[in-house]
Design goal:
Layout: H1 7-17, H2 29-39, H3 44-57, H4 61-66, H5 69-76, H6 83-98, H7 107-111, H8 118-129, H9 138-148, H10 157-176, H11 184-198, H12 217-220, E1 237-248, E2 251-256, E3 267-268, E4 271-274, H13 280-287, E5 294-303, E6 306-317, E7 329-332, H14 343-351
Parallel strand pairs: 1-6
Antiparallel strand pairs: 1-2, 1-4, 2-3, 2-7, 5-6
Helix pairs in contact: 1-11, 2-3, 2-8, 8-11, 9-11, 10-11
Bound molecules: iron/sulfur cluster (SF4).
């Protein structure tokens, strides 16, 4: 099979089947970049309202560069992987200060921005500027390994490099056959990802409706379920946290996570990681000598391979307590919504 023969049917399929996503209605590199960063590790349907809210509030590089950190992370609250948003603001400031506020237009310039790797650089350059830069994500890997019949793990560096090289050749071929007013680099790269998302799905791919079915090695050889070869996931690790909501006259005590920590800049109620058999009353006595705590709720949440259990206790106090071991602020319950809280603590706040 000549791999280049997949370009024409794929472009034709994309022209008819592309989803109407809000970031596809623009060629503004800033808007494309925001969508690409949000879409990392996050589903399209989750990203849409976040992207729309973000673009209304921070419509361009200058707005993001000049925004307060709390505004930016509040807009990101719930999307997770918060280093992404901190890097975005750093990148916006760099563009404002070193590029006169104009988004870089070449791959090297885009990849020099904090938080931008080979994938995002290629995505911005191809989608916004129609430059023939390849992109490889999980969807592209799945489609190409199946079409070509690559049985080795795509996690192996030489295999992944081969996939990048295939994609590079394909996108250049797509651009070479482009007619006036066509934007084939943008269309081809998005078509590969769209096919992976909608048709060539990880399980039960819809091969009957696939434009590449006649060219697909995995389908011909009945290996669709075994390609791509995926490594086993790392075993999950359980972690237990105990936290306290100290409620004094309608105010609660919150702390900001320090820089360098996971979720830095976000706020949360005081909490500690404890062993599986730790006693909440003992912990409260050691750190918050404030009286009897009652269990408010238990939040189970997963972060990468960690399965976290957060037990939240409520302490009502009539006098403002001295919390010598804690550094934070008292916030009125009515205003807690305005604070960017970590995902688990946002759920706790909703229970209050
Ligand atoms: S024929 Fe099936 S396995 Fe092959 S690319 Fe299409 S959807 Fe994927």
């Amino acid at each position: 099979m000549r791999l280049r023969s997949i370009v024409a049917p794929l472009l034709k399929w994309f022209a008819k089947n592309a989803r109407d996503l809000p970031w596809r209605r623009t060629r503004d590199p800033y808007a494309v970049w925001v969508s690409e960063i949000m879409l990392q590790q996050t589903q399209v349907k989750t990203v849409i309202p976040y992207w729309e809210r973000w673009m209304k509030r921070l419509p361009d590089i200058t707005a993001l560069a000049n925004a307060r950190e709390d505004t930016v992370i509040k807009l990101w609250e719930g999307l997770g992987y918060y280093s992404r948003v901190r890097n975005m603001q750093k990148a916006a400031r760099l563009i404002r200060d070193e590029h006169g506020g104009r988004f870089p237009r070449d791959l090297a310039g885009v990849m020099a921005l904090p938080g931008v790797g080979r994938y995002t650089g290629g995505a911005v350059c191809s989608i916004a500027f129609n430059q023939s830069e390849p992109i490889v994500d999980g969807n592209v890997i799945r489609v190409l390994t199946r079409v070509v019949g690559i049985e080795e793990s795509p996690k192996a560096k030489p295999v992944l490099e081969k996939i990048w090289a295939f994609t590079d050749d394909l996108v250049k071929h797509a651009v070479a056959r482009q007619q006036p007013r066509q934007r084939n680099a943008s269309a081809f790269n998005q078509a590969m990802m769209e096919l992976g998302a909608l048709v060539c799905r990880p399980r039960n791919p819809l091969c009957g409706g696939c434009p590449l079915q006649g060219r697909c090695t995995a389908r011909k050889e009945n290996k669709v379920e075994t390609i791509p070869a995926l490594a086993k996931r790392a075993a999950a690790t359980k972690r237990r946290f105990i936290g306290f909501i100290i409620n004094w006259r309608g105010k609660v005590f919150v702390q900001r996570r320090p820089s360098g920590d996971v979720n830095a800049g976000f706020w949360e109620f005081p909490n500690w990681e404890v062993s599986a058999d730790a006693d909440a009353a003992h912990l409260a006595k050691a750190n918050l000598p404030l009286g009897q705590a009652e269990l408010l709720c238990v939040i189970n949440h997963s972060v990468t391979r960690y399965r976290n259990r957060l037990e939240m206790f409520l302490l009502r106090v009539s006098r403002k307590p001295r919390l010598a071991k804690l550094h934070g602020e008292w916030v009125s319950l009515a205003k807690i919504d305005k604070f960017p809280l970590t995902a688990a603590h946002r759920k706790v706040a909703k229970r209050l």
